Amino acid sequence: MEIVLLRHGAASWDAPTDMERELTERGRAEVEAASQWLTEGDWRPDELWVSPYRRAQQTAEIVNARWQCPQRSKASLTPDNPVADLDPLLATFRGERLLLVGHNPLLSNAIAHWEGERASYWGLQTASMARIDADVPARGCGTLVWLRHYPNYQHNGR
Q: Which Pfam family, just one, is annotated for this protein (predicted)?
């Protein structure tokens, strides 16, 4: 299984709740750049699984505009969800390539979890992406293939 983790773009703090925060102009530009880099290659997800938070939904809409892949909202992709909840969730996926759109600390913790690290990797800035390959979604069963950060997606920050 190939899993690409995409953190949402920069978001405004001007919202009644964290769940309602929206992408800023900068955030939209970051996500557009990420989307362009992803779609220029031959990688295409079978599905997108997305946090229900507004900024993640907006990020997925921008990225998926080119692909039009099935997109599902997943409550387990919220910022403070335990990373261990992702393993049984991903075990239900029947495709080969999955794009997860979500937040820190969850996505950074997921990289560490799947690579078998004890400490979290906190390098996922807004609109950062990482690809993990794993036969089984479980602690220590994944390999970090690449790590990309806005604005230079050409550089593998792994």
A: His_Phos_1
What are residue 105's phi and psi, to 5 degrees?
A: -85, -5
In this structure, are residues 125 and 9 in contact, taking their beta carbons and an 8 Å threshold?
no
Domain coordinates in residue numbering, the chain: 2-131+141-148
pTM exceeding the 0.85 threshold for the entire prediction: yes
Domain 2-131+141-148 has CATH 3.90.230.10: no
